[in-house]
Amino acid sequence: MTYPLPLPENQHTAQPLVDTADKPHEECGIIGLYSPTEEVARMAFFGLFALQHRGQEAAGIAVSDGQSLRMHKDTGLITQIFNPGNLDPLKGHLAIGHTRYSTTGSSSARNAQPFWIETQHGPLAVAHNGNLVNTAELRDVLLRKGVGLSSTSDSEVITMMLAGMPGNNWVERVRQAMQLWQGAYSLVILTRDCVLAVRDPWGFRPLSIGMLKNGGHVVASESGALRTLDCQAIREVKPGEIIRMCSSALKVIQAVPPAPQLALCTFEHIYFSRPDSIWDGRSIHHVRQRLGEQLVREAPTAADVVIPVPDSSIPAAIGYANASGIPYNDGFIKNRYIGRTFIQPTDSLRKQGVALKFNVVEDNVRDKSLIVIDDSIVRGNTSGPLVQMLRQAGAREVHLRITCPPIRHSCYMGVDMGGGEQLIASQSSVEQIRAHIGCDSLHFLSLEGMMQAIGRQNGYCNACFTGVYPIPVDPAITKTGFEKT
Ligand code: SF4
Questions:
Q1: Could you name the CATH architecture of 288-455?
Q2: Which residue has the least CA distance to atom 3 on ligand 1?
Q3: Which tens digit of pLDDT belongs to each residue from 378-389?
Q4: Residue extents of the structural domains in the chain
Q5: Which atom of ligand 1 is nearest to the CA of 24?
């Protein structure tokens, strides 16, 4: 495919097979690599594959051999986009990759990343996880300067700003741009001769770095992806840092000071990250177990069995079972591959809704009183059908326990959970939500209980629960806002 020309829309942007709007949508996954001896394109492929849960709409890999850049990107899942025919030509020892869920801009092919442009300083490719909250102003400045934009994504604004920044080298230009960017950005940047890893001063989105046995380095959104590539000595990129990778010796620069009040996204613990990842120095799996234990302390309930809504709630259900002494068992079996097809179901299959994604293990729930653990309720349109499925299978009582507080406010920092009126907890009391879902009792973990389980009382963003944003935001901004202009 030819870049950076806008890509045609293609049929991969079809309607999702199963309604997943009742979960916050992951932001994106990014990866950057320097390896002195191995084909980085294949490593980038397997690294992105380990980050597939963070975005399933589009993906891309850009590679440099020190002379020129090559790239392949498209809409779809990693395994649908890449094959030996388009990976093998991506020769080089430096690479960046991106797997996308659209948080700004629609899911069209022209918003796929990395973005790649030619600049007066040489080629530049950028992959971004997060969302700038001042994109509108930055975009206006670029358009007034006569800079053309081919997409509706804030990540393209980042790329075009970098191209025009003053400075003697790319680190200097990125540092200058960081003074102007407000919001969430974990970035990997590919130039002809290096990869830069960048994290915003608030630390909203995760980014970790590890060392390869051959002296190379990898940065990735989650440490789980670094483990997949057999990285050692893994640490998180600190808020405000730029890390330059082009030889075995890393260059670490504290480009801007960390914000006085850090704002790490709590939802990485609750739902987004893989359970084998580390976030803020804490095991995601163990935090989720403690969330389940905390639910027992806050809402002890007699029952026969504890079941999770798979997959992200499994560790919390284990924690609940351990702390309560109530046995754990599987109540739902999830079809993990349902999101991996673009074949549209027939009307009658679509009417099955969540039943297309989950089956009940009837023998485990029949005539039983159940504690059902789920990570979150966004719009409230999945929990009801799940409770109904359990009742149809003969469950006597269904007590729903949620491992975070009610989500009442939108996120502007890179997580798509819909607008205020779409969030059921912004319109309804807990009792009204319980009645809507049809469960016997409902408890959301308190904010204090959640932070106790995480092990910190500050340094995290909790704006979607509290409405207190760590940076000023414009409530008028929507995901596709720029497409109307
Ligand atoms: Fe994460 Fe919620 Fe803050 Fe968004 S508002 S960054 S989802 S904690």
A1: 3-Layer(aba) Sandwich (3.40)
A2: 461
A3: 998 899 999 999
A4: 25-263, 288-455
A5: 7
Assess whether the C-beta atom of 266 lies below 6 angstroms from ligand 1. yes
Pairing of the two strands 358-360 and 282-283: unpaired
**Tens of pLDDT, residues 361-420:** 999 999 999 999 999 999 988 999 999 999 999 999 999 999 999 999 999 998 888 877
Residues with catalytic function: 28
CA 268 to ligand 1: nearest atom: 1
Is any atom of ligand 1 closer than 6 Å to the C-beta of 204? yes
Residue 390: in which H helix or E strand, if any? helix 383-392
Q: Express each pLDDT in 167-210 by its tens digit.
A: 999 999 999 999 999 999 999 999 999 999 999 999 999 999 99
Is the beta carbon of 174 within 6 A of some atom in ligand 1? no
Q: Calculate how far, in angstroms, residue 279's C-alpha sits from the geometric centre of ligand 1.
A: 14
The C-alpha atoms of residue 474 and residue 465 are separated, in whole angstroms, by: 17
- Nearest-atom index, ligand 1, CA of 417: 7
- Residues 445 and 300: their CA atoms lie apart, in Å, by 12
Quickly list H helices, 145-277: 154-164, 170-178, 223-228, 267
CATH architecture of 25-263: 4-Layer Sandwich (3.60)
